[in-house]
């Protein structure tokens, strides 16, 4: 029996490999067209492309699961609406209603995976101490020690993880205290792509809210990735980016535009404190938004994993009144792989 199972698995492996080779020309065309970031599309080591063997000797097979989760806020006259129900919300994906709504909940029902990304390059301002103190207080206010986890990274020309995922605010505070201006170049976009990867690879088996808070002037002079790369990867990995500028708005127009773009495309917000005293208020606004977000998960209709950008539109009404909805603009149509079958190889 064991030999037959092994033989069947080998045949399946070879068949799937041949299928991938057959699909390679189409993928290459997508890459040439710029619709799929090359860094993510050509990844031979990505999990789920072939059957795996788990620690118990079981074959684990995977298939595509086309499910999208969108985080959003709903406000009326500038105030958050806190008691929306599923019936109050309509979703349009590529101008079509979803095939199925899988889940709807307040984000407080989702574990938070938070990354704090602090610019330590020579371009940062004298607000640095106020920023790290405000970040420490922010973590104390938003992190549920039972369910949430946060990491701290500092970057100039490269990202340095000062504290890996933890649920302890005091560890975050100590990591923030160790950060300092290292007078290096600034690789904002590289740091974002690395941080998104870390959030995605946090090892969670259940749905989570992935959030990245970036403190920087947005002025990149050392990245191998572009602004477009960083924004697309955040969308691809379902990471919401909140940017807090280390400069007042208008002091660095290129940096301002980068921070605004990263936030808007991922469904976050770009904040520009006018003084160091207002940095804490910027963190408070992020805190309030995180406490009032909703999450809707659905299966899109007529989904094709071809890498093109699918626009999302969410309409929410409460007591007959249309609300203002803030969410990411869309996502890239890629296959998402999940375990579906585990067949024992034991006789």
Descriptive overview:
The protein has 347 residues and is an alpha+beta fold. It has three domains: 2-64 and 340-344, no CATH class; 68-107 and 294-332, no CATH class; 111-291, von Willebrand factor, type A domain (Rossmann fold, 3-Layer(aba) Sandwich), CATH 3.40.50. It has helices at residues 2-33, 38-41, 128-142, 169-178, 188-200, 227-236, 253-266, 279-291; strands at residues 52-53, 58-64, 68-76, 79-80, 89-93, 100-106, 112-119, 149-155, 159-166, 209-216, 239-245, 270-271, 294-299, 309-318, 321-322, 324-327, 330-332, 337-344. It has a six-stranded mixed β-sheet with strand order 9-8-7-10-11-12, sandwiched between helices. A hairpin with a 3-residue loop joins strand 8 (149-155) and strand 9. The model is unreliable at 17-64 and 337-347 (pLDDT under 50).
What's the layout of helices and strands?
Blueprint: H1 2-33, H2 38-41, E1 52-53, E2 58-64, E3 68-76, E4 79-80, E5 89-93, E6 100-106, E7 112-119, H3 128-142, E8 149-155, E9 159-166, H4 169-178, H5 188-200, E10 209-216, H6 227-236, E11 239-245, H7 253-266, E12 270-271, H8 279-291, E13 294-299, E14 309-318, E15 321-322, E16 324-327, E17 330-332, E18 337-344
Parallel strand pairs: 7-8, 7-10, 10-11, 11-12
Antiparallel strand pairs: 1-2, 2-18, 3-4, 3-13, 3-16, 5-14, 6-13, 8-9, 14-15, 14-17
